[in-house]
Amino acid sequence: MIQAASNIHYREHFYRITALWVICEAFAGGIMHGIKIPFSGMVISSLAVFCIILLARYVPARLAILKATMIVALFKLMLSPHSPPTAYIAVFFQGLVGQLLFLRKTNFSLSAVLLAVLSLVESAIQRLLVLVILYGKAFWNAVDEFIKKITGNTSIDNFSLLLAGVYIFIHAVVGVAVGLVASKVVKRTARWEQQFSRFIITDESYKSDPLLTKTKKKKRKLKWIFVIAWLLLFGFYLQSLVDPQGAFLPKDKLTEIFIRSALLLLAWYLFIGPLLMMGIKSALLASQRSRKIDMDATMQLLPEMKMIFQKSWQYSNTERSVARLKLFFKILLINVLKTNNENL
Length: 344
Fold this sequence. Notes:
Layout: H1 2-26, H2 28-35, H3 40-58, H4 64-79, H5 85-101, H6 108-151, H7 159-195, H8 220-242, H9 253-288, H10 292-315, H11 321-336
């Protein structure tokens, strides 16, 4: 009997934490914009890491993190169908790394820090790679020359590489802080329910909210306009390579950078991105049938988790800056981890 009750307890924690992770991935950007949380991109990445650390702490099942990752990716496909493939890469990277690090659970704090650092650094590198591919070498050379003229420093040849290193380093430092704080926070939640009982949310208005909202389909006519524009631009670009003397396009560096960026952006939007998403979508949908029970259980909790997220930020308005973030996480945790076995 004790083992059965314990399993029910773990199952409810699993679904509630997974539902919170779904909210972080699918809705948190809009929620944070509405309630004006600064540095929302980095905060969203940190929240995903936080959810994985919670799963590692409160759900002892061996492959719980990997299972939750698949559920989150499926809901992301349903709730944010226009998310780029890079967003799914980030989710799978975080889930896989988290599963590997917490497989043995021998050093919880170290695993939490490593997960946070690797996740945030991966996010930073992904953004930098997009910039490198998009703008090419000419743009970064122009940045180097511009900084040299402003600073008058000629001893450093590659300022852009230095800036990229600083950008990654900042993400790594934030990752260390997030990992340390998250590992400490999840260990202390047991005593917070009594200490912060005034912050337990009893509002049940979320029950009237729809579980899923339909997203508007993009107009295909507009897409065909972009296809025609890309073909024309690509034709002019090829003509300038074959016949530089009679090129229709100007030859200056600024135009070259602009044309390259426009061609790559449109190619990604029109061809590469959709093809990658077809592969991701087919792989996820193939596993959806076998996860119907998990999907249904998680879906029932989404309105509640969304409401808890919003209310937690509202209730923390008595504090400012870092103190507010700490109180926000405390309120969020005691409400996410409270159990109500009749739901499952």
